[in-house]
Hints:
The structure holds 2 protein chains of 2 kinds.
Chain A: H1 6-22, E1 27-29, E2 34-42, E3 47-51, E4 60-64, E5 68-72, E6 84-87, H2 89-92, E7 95-100, E8 109-113, E9 118-124, E10 129-132, E11 148-150, E12 165-169, E13 172-179, E14 182-190, E15 195-199, E16 208-216, E17 223-224, E18 230-232, E19 247-250, E20 253-254, H3 262-268, E21 279-283, E22 292-297, E23 300-304, E24 319-322, E25 328-334, E26 343-349, H4 354-363, E27 365-374, E28 388-396, H5 399-421, E29 423-426, E30 435-440, E31 443-447, H6 458-461, H7 464-469, H8 472-481, E32 485-488, H9 490-509, E33 516-519, H10 522-525, E34 528-534, E35 543-548, E36 565-573, H11 575-590
Parallel strand pairs in A: 7-11, 18-20, 28-32
Antiparallel strand pairs in A: 1-2, 2-36, 3-4, 4-5, 5-6, 7-8, 8-9, 9-10, 12-13, 13-14, 14-19, 15-16, 17-18, 21-22, 22-23, 23-24, 25-26, 26-27, 27-28, 29-30, 30-31, 31-33, 34-35, 35-36
Helix pairs in contact in A: 5-9, 8-9
Chain B: E1 21-27, E2 32-39, E3 48-56, E4 62-71, E5 82-89, E6 96-100, E7 109-113, E8 118-121, E9 128-132, E10 153-154, E11 163-167, E12 172-179, E13 182-189, E14 193-195, H1 202-207, E15 212-220, E16 223-225, E17 234-239, E18 242-246, E19 260-263, E20 287-289, E21 298-305, E22 310-316, E23 329-333, E24 341-343, E25 352-358, E26 373-381, E27 383-384, E28 389-390, E29 396-403, H2 407-419, E30 430-435, E31 444-448, E32 453-457, E33 459-460, E34 469-470, E35 476-479, E36 486-489, E37 498-502, E38 507-513
Antiparallel strand pairs in B: 1-38, 2-3, 3-4, 4-5, 6-7, 7-8, 8-9, 10-11, 11-12, 12-13, 14-15, 16-17, 17-18, 18-19, 20-21, 21-22, 22-23, 24-25, 25-26, 26-29, 27-28, 30-31, 31-32, 32-35, 33-34, 36-37, 37-38
Amino acid sequence: MTGRSTATRAIVCGLLGALLLEALPLRARADDGYRQLELEVERRRSGLLFVRFDADARRDMLVGTDSEIRVHLQKPDGTYAAPLVLDLGKDLGGGMFDTADFDGDKREELYVLHATGVDCFAFDPATQKIVRGKPLLEGQRGLPYLHLASEDFLRDLDGDGDDDFAFPLEGRVHIYTQEKGAFVKRGQAEVDRTQVRTSAGERDLGSRLQTRIEVPRFETEPLIDPEGQVEVRLGSGVLRSGDSAALLAGDFTLRKKTDPLATFRAKRGIKPGVDGGFQSILQDLDDDGINDYTIVFQNRIWVYKGTREGFDFDRSPDQLLKVAAADRLAVVLLPLNADARPDLILFKYEVPSVARLAAALAIGLRTEIEILGYYNDGKPVFSRKPDERSTFVVRVPPILRLIGEIEEIGLEFQEILRPMQSVASGDFDGDGRDDVLRVSAGNLEIYLTTEGEPPIDLGAARSRELLRAYGGHELVRKALFDRERRDITLESSMSLLREVIDGLQTAIVANRAPSLKLPIAAATGKRVDQILSEDLNGDGRGDIVVFLDPPPREERADPEAPIETQSLRIWLSEPGVDTKLRSAASEKAAQPGGSR
Amino acid sequence: MIRALLAALLALPAGSAHAARFESIELGPQDVLLGFALADLDGDKRVDPVIAAARKVGPDARERFLNVYRPAPAVEGKPYAYALARELRVPDDVVAFGVADLLGKGKAQLVYFTARSVFAVDPETGTPTRVLENERVFAPLAAPDVLPAWNGFDDLDGDGRADLLLPGLNAYRVYLQRQPGKLTSAGQVVAGSSFRHDPATRRLRRMRDQTSFTTGRSMNRLTLADVNGDGKTDLIGVKDKDLLAFTQRPDGSYASEPSSKFRLIGPRGIPFEDLAVDAVRPPPNIESGDVDKNGRADFVVPEIDVRELVMRLRIFLASATGVPEQPSQILKLSSIGDEPELIDINGDGFLDIGVGTVRTDRLLSLAQPSVKSIDFTYYGFLYRPSEKRFSTRPDITRDVSYDLPDEKEEEEERRRLETEEEDDDEPAGFLRLGGDFDGDGVKDLALLRATGDLSIYRGDAGKDRMSPSLASEPLLEAKVEATNDAWIQDLDADGRSDFVFRHEGSLTLLVSRK
C-alpha cells in the first residue's frame, strides 16, 4: 500500500491480519472431506505465492505489496496467521522476488533481486522471525526498481537441473550459475537497453507523475550439444533491435538468433513497420514433428515446410494460394475434420471508412466477413479451392446507443467467458496424475483421471490438441460453417459464444460424471476469476484456491468505496476425502467399459 | 524528421482598434527535444525559455544539454527575438530539471535532479551546488528521450523564497527554504498513487507483455489552494473519487495524512468503472480557484455520463464550513468535453467556466447521407456575483465543424501510410478561451484545426461586462504544425497572451504584438 506512514502501515497490516484471523469461518464438512476457508488479500499486490517457508509441510502464503512482503504462516488447523512483515522499501527500494530452497533445509527462502545484488531472507524457527541471510550477490551497479514484483528469476540456465539467475544491468546480463552450493559468474550477454519513460505532467489536478522502467527478460533454453557443451539461446524480445545476441565473455556458447522471416520479407519487399496485415503462423502442418510456416500478406498465402536444417525462403514455397482481392485477410489453423492435420481457415473482410464509422454512430453498421475453409489434404498442403464456405453478416447497432450499454454488454460477455476461467487441473486424489476441477451449477466438480481412461490434461485442454483430442473439429465446423449465411448481431454472437464454450466444457470433462461435488454458493460461483490447485497442507493432494471478482455493485455495502481487497475461498482436503475420491474412482474403474 | 513551420500572419486592416499580429520564433531545431521550461531567469518579468535537448555524438551515444534563451533587447520596428544565452552540458545522471531560486540569490537558477540529489546550477557559470542529498527522486534512471521539467517550486510559506515540492517514489516531500539556500524538510504528502501491481484478474495477466519485466509508479499531481481560508497555502490532490486537502500548519509544515477529504465525484461518475475495476485511471481534470472570492478554493468537476452522452459540470463553492457534500450547482451540457477552464472570461475579476465539447447531441444527424461533419462547441458560463452562481445557460457559444474525409481522401491516406513509416501523430486541435491576445482584459477564443490553421477570435465583454461575445472574424491567424502540445502564456510581459507549441525537435513561439 503506497504512500502510507509507517504507523499507518502497521495499523493496516494489523487490520489485514485481523481480517485473516477473523474472516476464517472453518466449515468442517465431514461428508465431502474438505474444509472451507475465506480470506481477503490485498487487491493491488505485487505477488501472491504459496511456499513452504517454515519447518512444516504446509504451504504458507506470501503476499507482496509495493514495498513489503507479508508472510502468513499456515497453522496446523489450516488457517493462516497474522503476517510477519518484511519492509524492504527503505532498504532496497524495489526489486524482483522469488523463492527457492538453496540450503536444503526443506524450507524455502525468499530472494530479492534489486539494484545492488540478490538478498536472501529466511524464516528462523528459533525466533519465529524473518531474518536476513547471506546474499547471493552484492556490490553490483544494476538497475533500479520502483517497487517489489514477483518474478520467476531463479531458473535453470545451464541445464544441470538446479536454479541459477541472470542479473540484469544496463544493456547486458551477468549469468550466475549454481555450482557446489555457491553462485559463480559464468558469462555475460548483451541485450536490449532498458526502456525508461518518465512524464511529469502538468501542474493541475488532472495530471499524474509517471515513471516506468522496462527491463528485457532474459529467456534461455539451455541445450547440451553433441560435444557436451552447454548452449544457451536467447528467447524473443531480449535482443537489441535489429541484431542478434552476442556473448561478451564467459563459458557459454551463444547461437546467433535472427528474424526467421527476414529473408522472406526482403525477397518480397515487405518492410517491417509498413507491413500491416502481415501474418505468420509457425505450426506443424504435416505431422512430421517439425514446424512449418504459413505466411499471409495482402492476397497471398505461402506455405513453407520446415526441415531439420531450418527454412529456405530462397526456394519456391511448397504452396502458394492466391485469394480474390479483399481489403483484409486473416488466417487461423484449426481442425475441420477428424484427421491429425490442422486446416486453413481464411477470413476476408473490409475495413469501414472513417465516414462509414462516423455514420455508424447514428445508424449502426453492416459488414460482411467471408470465411473459407481449406482442408489439409497434403496435395501439396491445403486444398487448392475452398472446401467450406460461409458468410457472417455482422450487424452493429448504432454505436451511440451501444456506448450507453457498454458496461452491461461487457459484463454479460464476461459472464459467458467465466466457465473457461472456472477450470483448473490438479492432483486431487494424490495418485500422481492430474485431474480436472470445474465450477458448474453451484458445485465444484472434481473429475478424476483413472486407469483405462484417456488422461485429462488441462494444459492440452487449453490448446489446439484439445480440439483434436475431443472432436473439437465438430465445434469449429458448427461455429463457422453450420450455415451458408449467418447473421451476427450482439445477441447472436453471445449465443454463439455460449455454444462454443459449452462445447469446450463438454470436451474438457470428456462426457464424464464428476467423482465429487463440493457445493459453492451460487453468488460465489458467478464471481470466479481463477482457480489454483496447490497442496497447501502437505497431505499429497491438491487443495483448491478460488480467486473471486468483486461482488456486483448492488451487493456491496458501499458501492462507491474503492475495492481494496480480493476474496479467496480455499477448500482444504481432509483425510476423509481420500476415501471418498478413491472409492468413487474405484467404482468407475470397476464398471465394464469405463465411463467414457 | 524536422518539419518546417510556416509563420504567417494576416494583419488586420489599418486603423483597426484591435490590430494585432503574431511574430513567430522557432527555438531549435534540435536532434531530439527532451523537454523545456518557461520561467523568468533574470528577474525582468519576461519568460526565458530553457530547452533540454540531445545531440548525437556517436552511433549509440547522445550528449544532453540545456539551452537557455533570453529575449533580445527590443528594437522599434524589429521583430521580437530570442538569443541563445548559454548552452550547458547536462550530466548523464540527471533525471529531471527545473528553474527556481533555491539558493536565495534573488534570481532563479537551473535545478538538476538526480536519482538521489538535487542541485542548483548557476546558469551563467554552470557551477552546481548540492541543495539536497540522500533523497529518492521519482525517476531513478534518466530516460533517453525525455528530460522532464519539474515545476513544483512555490513560495509555500509566504516568506518570499521559493520552496520545493520534491516528488519521491511514493510521496511528495515538502522542503521550505527558511533561510536563503537552505532547504528544511516540512513533511511529506501524497494523494492518489499506484504502482504496476500484479493484475488481479486472469484476463489481464494474460495480456501482459511477456518480453520485458516492467516496473512503474504514478502519483497524482498536487496543486496549491487555500482550502480553509486562513491565508496559507494548502496542498490538494485527487485520490479515487475524493479531493484530499493537506492544510499548512502554523509552522509551515504539512502532515502526511490529509486534514480533510471531500467527495467530488458523484455516484457512477466514472465511466465503465464496474467493467474495469482494476484500471488505474487518471484523475479527472478538476479545476480549482476562488470563484466567489471568499478566500477559499472552489472546484469545478467535469463528469461524463456515457449512458446519456452528456456532460455535467459539478460546481462546489466552499464556505466557512468547508466544501459542501452536494454540488452548489450542476451545469448539464448535451455534449461531451473533459477539460473545463476556470478563467476570468469577461475581465470582471471573477473566475468563469469555459469548456470545449464534442456535440454528441448532433451525432445522430450523421444518419443523413448529406451530413459529413462532426460538430464541436465551446461554451462559456459567467459567474454572477450578485446571484453567487454561474449562469444556467451559456453566455458564450461558438460552433466549429470538422469535415469527415471522403472515401477517396481516405484511400490516398492509406496508400501513403503503406509506403511511409507509420505516422504516430495523434489528431490535433483545440478550442480554448484561456488567452487575452489583444490585452483588453477579456479572453479571446483560440481555435486550432487539424490542418494547422490557428485562429484567434476577439472576445468582448459588453458595456456591463456581463454580455460577452466573440467576433465572427478572426483577430489573428497563423499556420502552425498541428499539435496538442500547446501552452498559452504571456512571454514578453506586455499584457498580451502568446503561444508556445512543442514539436518533435523544436519549440515555436507565437508572440502577439500590436
